[in-house]
Write a structure and sequence with these properties.
The complex is a heterotrimer of chains A (311), B (104) and C (394). By secondary structure, chain A is of the alpha/beta class. Chain A has one domain: Rossmann fold. Chain A is 38% helix and 13% strand. In chain A, α4 packs parallel to α6. The longest helix of chain A has 24 residues. Chain B is mainly beta and 104 residues long. Chain B has a domain of 55 residues: Alpha-Beta Plaits. A two-stranded antiparallel ribbon of chain B has the order 1-4. In chain B, strands 2-3 form a two-stranded antiparallel sheet. In chain C, α11 packs across α14. Chain C starts with a strand and ends with a strand. The mean pLDDT of chain C is 97. The chains are: A alpha/beta (311), B mainly beta (104), C alpha/beta (394).
Chain lengths: 311, 104, 394
């Protein structure tokens, strides 16, 4: 794997001038994903669902993409890219293309966990040689912070606000999409964070080497939706990892490997208290909810440890 | 003819953008309130600021940091926050010290 | 050597697709179009085509994957009907907006609710504003011929628009008829190679497809779309001319059947035209001056040519196999009335018969009855009822 210095010598395939919020993690994650592509050996074509990443990087007549890029609709990034990948196989077979091209489909949690779940599932099930990266900012951020099935329990969003009658914010637990992808039996599925750039870029490299479908769920803190100061974006990703709210692991051909086990597993409150979307949890009367959230995190973490032990 | 003056006959069909990476022409530097000031002496060229910049605004050459792209830097402060040597300081941008319009 | 076969509409469509041998087909089953996909899957499995076939998990994904493949630089096709077309509705607009030359056979089937698997035109009529070229086919022969021509029309450098070719569900898709099929190499030579100007897999020239337009650009890009449609008519005729040279069969924008000296005429789409032509012949035997106009190109709507063809007629009945629920009749009637509004000469009396919804049969007696009505209107100058629901139980 290339060192950071070596990676820095590769051309930035996502350039500046896009309109993402200051401190947005999505372009950080996408830059890291793209820097994992070795320009000496491969080209990459990307597709993206409607959402923050897509609208901020392709405002006509400008594009921040230095690679071929397609956006068609909200729920079908996976289906669209599966079509591109199929065209590649067809044209390569006919000798019309001789380059090695990798295919990446991006989607936010909205366009992946919810409305895009079907098309992602279909593409993964069919075995297309592509990598789907979900940049998970845990709500429909582009339309103004509405809850998605990726929103963690207790988060206040505009469609699950913490109110006087319903003080909890979102009541449901976060859907475990990474495990759903694992259940598809794809060769490679992983969870990553832009804070752990080395782990993430290594995972992207690995995923691209896989002959078949791969999925990476990368945490993408949103300063407006999560409500924190923009300079803390990476720190918040780091805290999510260190509290095990966002475990870093990979599943290769069904075998689970946890890539990072925090030496000092922090209580999830350390992550929650830095975000305005969880502020109501620290009001008196919500202690039980905080406990519940910690229990959910621990249960999930222990389950993951057990899965890893199973081999 | 500026982009705003072009008509429907002057541009590619179907909204295609043929000039990859032309977002560089769009300067987001004026979004800033605070600007990062880089202390070259303290810098160890670890590239951490580069790998964490959302706006590809840390300028690097041959594995070394050479400066900041003030035309696109939005002043988010991640580089300063993450720098292991505190070699980047966020400073309130004023007319006196302002980078708006200027670029190395 | 072309061969004459007994064939169903779906088989003919699948055969056309086999001979086109597209790079990619992404499709999903739905009655009554399923067979097209099934037969094609057989071709793939037996190595009769080089196509990469994607058995997608929904029609929305079918069009999405087809769009991806087409934008990537491949010749890509799909096929569907009714609810499937409805499910991919947003993607139809996107395919047209992105100017992708996708060709899709659509088997006309009624839209739910109630759910009905039989023929009417509500599905493709519902897509008439999508920006797709729409070519309607009376029988298996026309479906076959139109699909092949559609590839050239859609990919024409002055056009670059997706094109749907329709046929009536069950009546034509499953009904056995005669057709003359061209040779594989004749079709291959006719359609030529697909050479897109800009495509995703051209990695040395990266493009961005599907950018966001604010209000400063959307209008311009959509204006381009309208502009492309102004050139479709000429290209359709030009391709038809070339097609005649390889097949001997003549196609135009529409089919004018014994219309020249007709006093009254029926305008109709797809298979009912076949029934109607028989009625026209019978009535002509009796000395009655009746005629027929069968629509082929519906979108864009060749209003000038059609209104010219109907100019001398005293009364016209438009048969619609779909309703627009506007109180003004079916979609073809509405378009035709608009087309005739500014036609020179005495005003042609026009009435609408909505028939055949959900596969309700229409027979020769009913069509003859329509001509009777028309003669009455022509004589008295009076329209008692502009819109009639023909064949429904009151």
């Amino acid at each position: 794997m290339a060192t950071l210095k070596e990676l820095s010598m590769r051309e930035d395939l996502l350039c500046g001038g896009h309109r993402a919020c200051a401190g947005c993690a999505a372009p950080i994650a996408i830059r890291q994903a793209l820097m994992a592509v070795d320009p000496e050996s491969s080209d990459v074509v990307v597709g993206c669902a409607t959402g923050c990443l897509e609208v901020t990087t392709t405002i006509y007549p400008y594009t921040a993409w230095r690679v071929p890029f397609i956006h068609s609709a909200f729920e079908n990034s996976a289906a669209t890219v599966s079509g591109v990948e199929t065209a590649y196989r067809a044209l390569k077979k006919k000798g019309k293309i001789d380059r090695d091209i990798k295919f990446m489909a991006f989607g936010g949690d909205g366009g992946t966990y919810d409305i895009g779940l079907q098309s992602l599932s279909g593409a993964m099930e069919r075995g297309h040689n592509m990598l789907y990266i979900c940049y998970d900012n845990q709500a429909y951020m582009n339309t103004g912070i509405q809850r998605s099935s990726a929103t963690p329990k207790g988060a206040s969003t505009t469609t699950s606000p913490a109110g006087s009658a319903i003080p909890a914010g979102k009541k449901q637990i976060r859907k475990d999409l990474t495990q759903i992808m694992v259940a598809h039996g794809i060769p490679y599925a992983a969870q990553a964070s832009p804070s752990n750039w080395r782990d993430f870029t290594r995972k992207v490299e690995k995923a691209l080497e896989v002959d078949g479908p791969a999925f990476i769920n990368v945490l993408s803190p949103c300063r407006l939706g999560w409500r924190y100061a923009p300079e803390e974006t990476i720190e918040l990703a780091r805290l999510a990892v260190n509290t095990c709210a966002w475990p870093l692991y990979e599943v290769e051909n069904g075998v689970v490997k946890i890539n990072y086990k925090p030496k000092d597993k922090l209580p999830v409150a350390e992550w929650l208290k830095k975000q305005g979307r969880f502020r109501h949890l620290f009001k008196p009367g919500n202690e039980a909810l905080l406990e519940e959230i910690q229990e959910d995190i621990d249960r999930n973490w222990n389950k993951l440890l057990a899965l890893e032990a199973m081999g | 003819m500026s982009a705003a003056e072009k008509g429907w006959k002057d541009v590619p069909k179907g909204g295609l953008i043929l000039d990859a990476g032309n977002a560089m022409e769009y300067e987001t530097g004026d979004w800033r309130t605070y600007k990062p000031v880089w202390d070259e002496e303290k810098c160890i060229h670890c590239m951490i600021c580069w790998v964490f910049c959302p706006d590809s605004s840390i300028k690097v050459e041959d594995g070394k940091m050479v400066g900041i792209d003030y035309k696109h830097c939005k002043g988010c402060g991640i580089c300063s926050f993450e720098c292991p040597r505190k070699a980047i300081e966020m400073v309130l941008e004023t007319e006196e010290n302002g980078e708006a319009g200027a670029c190395e | 050597m072309s061969r004459r076969v007994a064939i169903t509409g779906n088989e003919a469509a699948a055969e056309a697709m086999r001979q086109i041998n597209p790079d990619v087909v992404a499709a999903y089953p739905i009655t009554p179009a399923t067979e097209i996909v099934q037969i094609f899957a057989d071709f793939v499995a037996n190595g009769d085509v080089d196509t990469e076939f994607v058995a997608v998990e929904s029609e929305h994904s079918a069009m999405s994957a087809t769009i991806g493949a087409s934008a990537a630089g491949a010749r890509a096709m799909t096929a569907t009907a009714s609810q499937g077309l409805a499910l991919m509705w947003e993607m139809l607009y996107i395919a047209a907006g992105l100017r992708l030359p996708i060709v899709a056979p659509i088997v006309n089937r009624a839209l739910s609710a109630p759910i009905n698997i039989h023929c009417d035109h509500s599905d493709t009529m519902g897509a008439r504003d999508s920006g797709w070229i729409q070519i309607y086919s009376e029988d298996a022969q026309e479906a076959y011929d139109n699909i092949i021509q559609a590839v050239r029309i859609a990919e024409h450098p002055d056009i670059k628009l997706p094109c749907m070719v329709t046929m009536d569900g069950f009546i034509v898709s499953h009904g056995m008829g005669n057709a003359e099929l061209l040779d594989d190499d004749v079709v291959q030579k006719f359609i030529g190679e697909y050479k897109p100007e800009h495509y995703l897999l051209d990695v040395d020239n990266p493009i961005t497809v599907g950018a966001l337009d604010f209000s400063d650009w959307y209008f311009e890009h959509r204006r381009q779309l309208a502009d492309a449609h102004t050139r479709v008519k000429d290209v359709v005729l030009q391709i038809a001319k070339e097609f005649k040279e390889i097949s001997g069969r003549e196609y135009k924008l529409f089919d004018a059947y014994r219309l020249d000296d007709a006093e009254v005429a029926i305008v109709v789409i797809n298979s009912a035209a076949g029934t109607a032509k028989t009625v026209v012949d019978q009535l002509r035997e009796k000395g009655l001056k009746v005629g027929l106009l069968k629509i082929r190109l519906f979108r864009p709507f060749p209003y000038e040519e059609i209104s010219e063809a109907l100019a001398g007629v005293k009364a016209v009945a438009v048969l619609d196999r779909a309703d627009s629920l506007s109180l003004m009749g079916g979609p073809l009637y509405i378009d035709l009335r608009a087309a005739m509004y500014d036609a020179p000469g005495p005003r042609v009396k026009m009435v609408n018969y909505i028939y055949g919804l959900g596969g309700r049969d229409i027979n020769m007696e009913q069509i003859a009855g329509v001509y009777d009505d028309l003669f009455e209107i022509a004589k008295t100058g009076e329209i008692k009822q502009a819109v009639t629901y023909l064949g429904v139980r009151e």
